[in-house]
Amino acid sequence: MTTALNPSYRPPSRDDLSNKLIPAWYSVEKQNVMQELAQINKAAITCDGWTSVAQDHYLTVTVHYTSHGHIKQKVLNTKAVNESQTGLVVADEINSILVEFSLNAKVVAATVDNASNMDVALKTLKFLKVGCFAHTLNLAAQKVYCTSAVTKWCAKLRAVVVWLKRSTMAKTVLQEKQRLLDLPGHNVILDVRTRWNALFLMWRGF
């Protein structure tokens, strides 16, 4: 299509995008963010560590602040963590990101999950911890799984879901029944223990 519209135009190569254009764009946007953050006096951050499908570890730091009466947030960095994610290592990683954006003296509070290494990191950095409500809610919801009646019911429901996901024939029959009953066409959902609403979503799928 590009050739038809403009035969003389040559789109940038993958190498140009990866090594020139995107880094240049990032540099401009980073400077814009740093200029805006230079105008604020106080800020809060959220930090979370996660693992990719390839089992690589990352740490993301997001800053939250007010500017001209508006609440704003910026993802400062998603950084690869190649060392063991102890509390001291996480503290160093968080601090290096904050220093890079000249925010280390402006942060008054941080919201993190209930992981012990995050607790150690915040104590090391001397930041006020504001517990993540979603993680706390998840811990409370996990108590439901410990109930004997719910455990047995979940096992039966989960077995049906796993069978429907693994069987091509069962999936085809499910789609046909949804069509005949004029129901929304969707796949069943398998619950994940670390997500507090996953059990409800699995049950609602039926």
Notable traits:
206 residues; alpha/beta; five-stranded mixed sheet; 8 helices; extended; zinc ion binding; ZnF_BED_domain_contain; nucleus
Average pLDDT confidence is 86
Round the Cα radius of gyration to an integer and report it: 24 Å
Main sheet summary: 5 strands, mixed
Give helix % range.
40-55%
Dominant shape: extended
Number of domains: 2
Which structural class is indicated by helix and strand composition? alpha/beta
Number of helices: 8
Biggest sheet, spatial arrangement of strands: 3-2-1-4-5
**Relative strand content:** 15-25%
Gap from first CA to last CA:
45 Å
Keywords: Metal-binding, Nucleus, Zinc, Zinc-finger
GO molecular function: zinc ion binding
Main location: nucleus
Protein name: DUF659 domain-containing protein
Write up what this structure looks like.
This protein has 206 residues and is of the alpha/beta class. It contains 8 helices and 5 strands; from the N terminus they run H-H-E-E-E-H-E-H-E-H-H-H-H. The protein folds into 2 domains: 39-131; 137-204, no CATH class. It is extended and about 60 Å long. A 5-stranded mixed beta sheet has the order 3-2-1-4-5.
Brief summary:
This protein is of the alpha/beta class and 206 residues long. It has helices spanning 2-5, 14-37, 87-100, 116-125, 133-145, 148-166, 168-180, 198-204, and strands at 43-51, 57-67, 70-80, 107-112, 128-131.
